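Consider the tokenized backbone below.
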């Protein structure tokens, strides 16, 4: 059963009636952030704000809430967690507990409530499942835990919709790009073990520091010479550690970083090449290297049909839709996309600063833009044959 234009209009009208309360909820959520793994108070606040319906607690601090009756449904995600950042916005409703919604999750959650309450009022043919996801900002992934719990199947979720604020877009713009839109993201640690000793006698040591330095420099060629230039790839070393004294050669040195790419096939090969490179360079200098990789999010792939239908609906509602937006950022929403047809929308903000900064604070109009984007995605997914 498809959603009629009349239903579309009724949902949009109901959504806009819910937006003032959603903006007030956003301030409450923003003032009371909880970091990953401690989101229970935020979950309770959301359960109190959402329409009454069947609730399943999942993934520790997460929950699924069914809205609009039984049967195959469209899942809509909101992320519960904040970041361990001290807020510097200066607004009366700024957080003061050492955490901050510096990634827009408060906006996403408020928009999700507005949409859920509109669906509850209008009761369209296709129900909605509000997916309250913990641990988007850290490992282990809350999205992966929800998928592996089987909750999507138990609630007959046939598609997933998400939206994320994005300062690189102009305020009010919504990117709805088919195909790969976010990269995979894996964390790695390279450890080089040599033989320590006195700095005055280098010939009696096997210094791991220059060996690690060569590995770091050589790893840049994984991007420039190993990767297909048509496949975005990023190798980043973020931390270095070695030694405790300036006149002593340490016995080991370590570096940590991330690997990002838009191809799952190259992702697997990239892991192999980093290990081969580290092993070979270390061996050439009489040292030993180990590479530990923590697998993070897969490539986030938007369903083409969902993206195209949502773009048309956004255009009808007057939202500007940029042609393409892809980035090597990562989001564990990708796990939902590996389970069911899914769509991640990116919504422009009016902020001068970027995500994860202590002054990031989108205005109320961003709540409206995210809510309208989620509505368009929900309507597009509700048209899937079932």
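A designed sequence for it:
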């Amino acid at each position: 059963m498809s959603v009629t234009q009349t239903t579309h209009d009724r949902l949009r009208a109901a959504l806009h009636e819910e937006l003032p309360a959603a903006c007030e909820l956003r301030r409450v959520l923003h003032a009371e952030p909880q970091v990953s793994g401690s989101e229970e108070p935020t979950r309770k606040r959301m359960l109190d704000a959402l329409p009454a319906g069947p609730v399943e607690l999942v993934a520790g601090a997460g929950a699924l809430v069914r809205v609009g009756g039984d049967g195959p449904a469209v899942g809509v995600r909101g992320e519960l967690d904040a970041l361990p950042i001290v807020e510097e916005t200066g607004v009366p409703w700024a957080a003061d507990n050492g955490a901050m919604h510096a990634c827009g999750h408060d906006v996403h959650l408020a928009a999700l409530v507005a949409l859920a309450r509109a669906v509850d009022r209008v009761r369209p043919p296709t129900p909605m499942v509000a997916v309250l996801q913990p641990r988007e900002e850290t490992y282990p992934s809350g999205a992966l835990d929800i998928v592996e719990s089987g909750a999507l199947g138990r609630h007959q979720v046939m598609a997933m919709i998400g939206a994320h604020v994005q300062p690189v877009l102009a305020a009010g713009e919504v990117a709805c790009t088919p195909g790969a839109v976010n990269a995979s993201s894996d964390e790695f640690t390279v450890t080089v073990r040599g033989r320590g000793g006195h700095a005055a006698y280098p010939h009696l040591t096997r210094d791991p520091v220059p060996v690690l330095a060569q590995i770091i420099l050589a790893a840049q060629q994984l991007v420039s010479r190993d990767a297909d230039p048509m496949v975005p790839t990023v190798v980043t070393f973020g931390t270095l550690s070695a030694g405790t004294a300036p006149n002593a050669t340490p016995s080991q040195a370590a570096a940590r970083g991330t690997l990002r790419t838009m191809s799952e096939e190259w992702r697997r090969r990239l892991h192999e090449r980093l290990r081969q490179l580290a092993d070979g360079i270390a061996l050439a200098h009489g040292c030993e290297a180990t590479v530990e990789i923590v697998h993070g999010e897969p490539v986030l792939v938007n369903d083409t049909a969902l993206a195209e239908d949502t773009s048309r609906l956004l255009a009808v509602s007057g939202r500007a839709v940029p042609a393409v937006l892809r980035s090597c950022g990562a989001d564990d929403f990708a796990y939902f996309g590996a389970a069911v047809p899914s769509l991640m929308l990116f919504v422009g903000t009016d902020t001068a600063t970027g995500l994860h900064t202590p002054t990031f604070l989108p205005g109320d109009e961003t709540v409206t833009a995210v809510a309208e984007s989620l509505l368009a995605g929900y309507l597009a997914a509700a048209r899937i044959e079932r």
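Residues 5-31 form the longest helix (27 residues).
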